[in-house]
């Protein structure tokens, strides 16, 4: 009986350790290849991979969607792919492993990612553009809408992506660092698909959380007044 209990305990510990090894901790990961930066944003079920250059600034690609992990494979059901017009991809299967806290991805080439430092801020999370403000009960866009603009905020990094889930049309993306504190939201742009010359710009906005909505006001990148309402995804 004791031998059986010991064997069962060993089996349970084996499966627990195997399961833990298979998980990818949520966070933001970077892989640097000469002047090319690969950035991964990962939460419990969503992943975004973006590639860009810094000097000179050049946006290369971004793709993302909901993912599952099984047998050392990241399976991604893509919601967007900036290269869809060229590659027609709607899903990805990427072999991966974790080694001493580093994430290894084996696609066309092997990439080694290091996790950035965790940083918790008030606006952290995934947000979908809902409507222009002020809120007067007007129609809103949300999860049921095929046309989406997603803003992903985590560990001091932000990215917005505009896309259409039915046609896979990609309309644009930008990202970099952000801070949100005492009602002031600041973005520092490190990549921008529509205009590489915008890299290096700092944008400052006011924000207020009302229920599950983020009210976002200030001047946009063109210096025009804006009032956006984003809903928590």
Automatic annotation (TrEMBL):
Name of the protein in question: Membrane or secreted protein
Top-level taxon in the UniProt lineage: Bacteria
